[in-house]
Each structure stands twice: as C-alpha cells, then as structure tokens.
UniProtKB/TrEMBL annotation:
The keyword Membrane applies. Residues 1-15 have a biased composition (Low complexity). The keyword Coiled coil applies. Residues 16-26 have a biased composition (Basic and acidic residues). It holds the Pfam family OmpA. Keywords: Coiled coil, Membrane. InterPro entries: Bact_OuterMem_StrucFunc, OmpA-like, OmpA-like_sf. This is OmpA-like domain-containing protein. Residues 118-145 form a coiled coil. Residues 1-26 are annotated as: Disordered. Residues 182-309 form the OmpA-like domain.
C-alpha cells in the first residue's frame, strides 16, 4: 500500500511579525473538514490493493466452484436414489427368500405328514390283507365242507344228469361271465353279460347264451326239470327320471330283469310252466356293497335247476349276509 502523503504545513509567521489586529488561523472545524477531503482524494490513487484482473479471476473461480458443488450435489442425489433402489431390491429379495423358506418348511411338514399317513394306511392294508388271507382260507375250508355235505346228502346233489352237466360246463367255458356250479346245478349270469346298469333290457349278445341254455333244458336229459329265475340288484337307489318310470325301486328292477330272462327263454322254446321268477332287490348280496366292484358282483341273475318234485315256492335261496 502506497503511504499516504502528509500535507505540508505552511511556516507560521511569528506572532511578532503579524500585523496587529490580524489572526490568520482557520477555525478547527474547517481545518478538520479540509483534511478529510484531502485524505479522501488521495486514497483512490494510492490504495488500489486488488487489481481488477484478479477480481475477475476470483469471480470465475467462484463460478466454477459453484458449478462443481451443483454437480457434486446431483451425483450425491443420484447415488442416494441408487442406494434406496438397491435397498428396496435387497428387502424384496430377503422377503422372497423368507417366503420360499416358509413354503419349503410347509412342504416338508406336509410331506412328513403324508408319509406318516401312508405308513398308517400301509399298516392297515397289511392287516386287511392278512385278514383277507385268513378269511379266504376259512372260506375254502367251508366250501370244502359244503361240497362234502352235498356229496354225503343225496338230496343236495344237482338234479341234472351227467350229460346235461357236461353241456352246461362247456357253455360256461365259452362264456366267461356265465358261471355254472356242477354240484348244485345253479347257473349265475354276471353283471355285464345280461343287462346294463339300471336297465332291464337284455343285451343283444346275451341272447345266444340264453338260447343255448333253453336248448339244454329242453333236451331229453333235462326236460323233466324246472327252473327258478332270480334277479338281484346292488344297494344303489334308482337314478334318473326315465329309469324310475320303468323301475321305481330295486324290487321292480330285480323282478323285471328276471321276467326279461324268462320271456327270452320262452321265446327260445323253453316251456313257461317249467319256469318261475323272483326278485330279491338288494337284500341277497353275495358280497358287501362297499365299492363298485362288489356292487357289480351283486347285480346278477341266477337260475336254479329244480327237481320235478320240488315246488318253486319251497326252493332254498342264498343266506342273507
């Protein structure tokens, strides 16, 4: 900084040389004002500390710093947004992993429960199979005793002759759904050979079988015997309006089926006075109606061959289960 010039002081005239009655001193207040004006005039000239070019450079530097600050703030905001997005994605992934783990645990628990249930069912099945084997063995023993009793008691033998029995056995061999018992002379027609479920109209493919049956019964070796035709149903109720119109109950269905067999045998040449019909509805099952397979076995028609002296009304029938 350039030193400020000190104003020169005029040499004072000795008070003795002054003219008498003249005081050349200015008032103090005037002198102070003039000094201030002089100092104010000298300062712009001597105190130009910061040149103008440095001031411009400073302003440019300040602008650049401001731009850098704005850019840094924008980058900071972008990084913060990216961080929030990454945090949200990480939270979603954590929630998805947690849900997957919970689902896996539920599946594991369900699998363990199913395995436990399967083990219990398998144990029950094993017990049922063992009981079935025992019952089958007992049934075989009872059947053997029954056959022995039939052989021992003459009245229990089949009234059919040997040749007629052989012809019925040959007929049963050609028709798998036709069952013939040579010891009792009872013929059984399975559920699929004669009728459709819920119907009493004879299947066309059953007509040849019944014709051959009538032919054997009309032969000389069997012409003196009578037959009883018995219809049976399962325990299902009659369903469908059209079926109910024809067969309101299982009583109607069982007897209508027996009647259909009788009329077909009559048309095939078997004398009607040698036949009788009966319907037992659902009340004479051969097995319990616990599933569809058993129900199919119970839907059947049986033909009992009777000796001439046996009355139809006095015939013996299967024992109710």
């Amino acid at each position: 900084m350039t030193p400020t010039a000190t104003p020169a002081t005029a040499p004072q005239t000795p008070r003795a040389n002054r003219e008498p009655g003249t005081d050349q001193r200015l008032p103090r207040r005037v002198r102070w004002g003039l000094g201030a004006l002089l100092i104010g005039a000298l300062v712009p000239v001597g105190c130009d500390v910061v040149p103008r070019n440095r001031l411009v450079e400073s302003r440019q530097t300040a602008g650049q710093l401001r731009d850098e600050v704005l850019t840094a703030q924008a980058e900071r905001d972008s990084i913060a947004a990216q961080y929030e997005t990454a945090t949200a994605l990480a939270e979603q992934e954590r929630a998805a992993r947690l849900a997957a783990m919970q689902e896996r645990d539920a599946l594991i628990a369900q699998t363990q429960q199913s395995e436990h249930m399967a083990a219990k069912l398998q144990a029950g099945l094993d017990i049922a199979n063992r009981r079935l084997e025992n019952l089958s063995g007992e049934r075989g023993e009872l059947q053997g005793k029954y056959i022995g009793l039939l052989r021992d008691v003459g009245s229990g033998d089949s009234p059919l002759s040997g040749s007629a029995t052989a012809r019925f056995e040959e007929l049963a061999a050609r028709y798998p759904d036709f069952d013939f018992d040579p010891l009792t002379g009872i013929s059984k027609f399975g559920p699929n050979v004669l009728f459709e479920s819920g119907k009493a109209e004879l299947n066309p493919n059953a007509v040849p079988l019944l014709r051959e049956f009538a032919e054997i019964m009309s032969s000389p070796e069997a012409e003196g015997l009578n037959i009883l035709i018995v219809g049976h149903t399962d325990d299902e109720r009659i369903a469908g309006a059209a079926t109910k119109q024809k067969h309101p109950t299982n009583w109607h269905l069982s007897t209508n089926r027996a009647n259909e067999v009788a009329t077909t045998l009559s048309a095939a040449g078997l004398s009607e006075h040698r036949m009788g019909v009966a319907g037992y509805s659902k009340y004479q099952p051969v097995v319990r109606n616990r599933d569809d397979m058993n129900r199919a076995m119970n839907r059947r028609v049986e033909i009992y061959v009777l000796a001439p002296e046996v009355k139809v009304a006095g015939a013996m029938f299967p024992t109710r289960l």
